[in-house]
Amino acid sequence: MKIEITTPISEETVSSLKVGDTIEITGCIFCGRDAVLPKIVRLIEEGKLDTLGIDLRGSVIFHTAVSSAGVGPTSSNKLEIESSIEPLSIAGVKLHLGKGEIHMETIEALDRNNAVYAVIPPVTALLNDKTFEQEIAAFPELGMEALYRLKVCRYPAIIAAAHGRSIYEQH
Q1: How distant, in Å, are the alpha carbons of 31, 68, 125, 142, 149 from that of 71?
Q2: CA-wise closest residue to 155 among 110, 124, 116, 109
Q3: What's the average model confidence in pLDDT over 54-63?
Q4: What pLDDT score was predicted for residue 117?
Q5: Which H or E run contains 111?
């Protein structure tokens, strides 16, 4: 059974998710990866994120670039991406969306901040049909690696880390 999630995501919704749950995300999501996420974290640390008109409470960050070819997940365990997960979670991001295994320290940081990590299949064509609007939210000079805001409907993903557990754990 797929769990339908609409942004902004509530604390209660995140608390109810378990590793292995299949979800579909509808609403506005942010897209960013290694070039832009450290810039967003720096703005959070300086208390200046609101100057861009960006509210991360209840949001989703998809680890991707946006190009004319569409969107597809990048590896979430790249240093610049994975090191952004905790500060972004503190700032209100509830769901981090990407691909690959993340470190236990990051899984624990997600748990402390009632946030989760989900993996999305690298199927650009499928996601293109589920993306209805896109706009640059910040840092347009980064081109396809700028921070984008997408309006999506029923993006498929699997919860890979939640409440101190990971889908990648050895059983």
Answers
A1: 9, 8, 8, 16, 12
A2: 124
A3: 96
A4: 97
A5: helix 104-112
The residue count of the chain comes to 171
Distances in Å between the Cα of 40 and the Cα atoms of 34, 65, 114, 128, 147 are 11, 15, 20, 25, 9
Structure tokens belonging to residue 11 = 């604390």
Tens digit of each residue's pLDDT (9 = 90 or more) over 130-151:
889 999 999 999 999 999 999 9
Amino acid at 18: K
**CA 129-2-94 angle, 5° bins:** 80
CB distance 135 to 107 below 8 Å: no
Sign of the dihedral defined by the CA atoms of residues 35, 63, 115, 51, in that order: positive
Q: Which domains does the chain have, with CATH numbers?
A: 2-163 (3.20.130.10)
pTM: 0.90
Cα angle 81-83-85, degrees, rounded to a multiple of 5? 75
Long-range interactions of 138-144: CB distance < 8 A, separation 24+: 138/36, 138/39, 138/40, 138/52, 138/54, 139/36, 139/39, 142/35, 142/36, 144/65, 144/66, 144/67
